[in-house]
Amino acid sequence: MTNLIGCRPVLGAMLAGMLLLAGCKGEKKQEAKDAPSQMEEVIAVHDEVMPEMKTIANLVAELKPLADSTGSDSQYAVAMQDLQAAHQSMMDWMQGFGNRFDHEEIMKGKALSEEKQAWLAEEQEKVEAMRNQVLGSIERAREVLEEAREGADRE
Prior knowledge:
The protein is mainly α.
C-alpha cells in the first residue's frame, strides 16, 4: 500500500502532463484553423486598398486644375499621373487575378491545384506591390497638394 501512495503524485503529474499536451495540440489545431489562408490574405490586401480608389478619384479631381494650369511636367501632373497609374494597377491586378481563379477558389476556399498554389504566391507579391503603389501615390499626391496650399497661404 505504501508503494501505491508514493506513486500517486507521480501518476497525477503524468496524467496532468498528458492532459496539458492534449490541450496544447487542440490549441494548435484551433490556431491553424483561425489563421487566414494565403487566399484570404491576398483578398484582405485587395479589400484594404479598394476603398482607396475613391480617394484616388478625389485627389485626381483636385490635382487636375493645377496640372492643367502648370503643364504636363509639373509636380501636379506627375502626381496625377502616378495616381492614375496606381488606379490602373488595381484594375489590371483584379482582372488578372479573376482570370486565374474561379469564384469557388476565391470565396469558398476550394482547394487549389499545385499550379494555382504557385500562382497564388505570385498574386500575393503582385497585390502587395499594387498596395504599395496605391498608398504611395496617395501619400505623394497629398504632399504635393499640401505644399500647394501652403504656397497659396503665403501669397
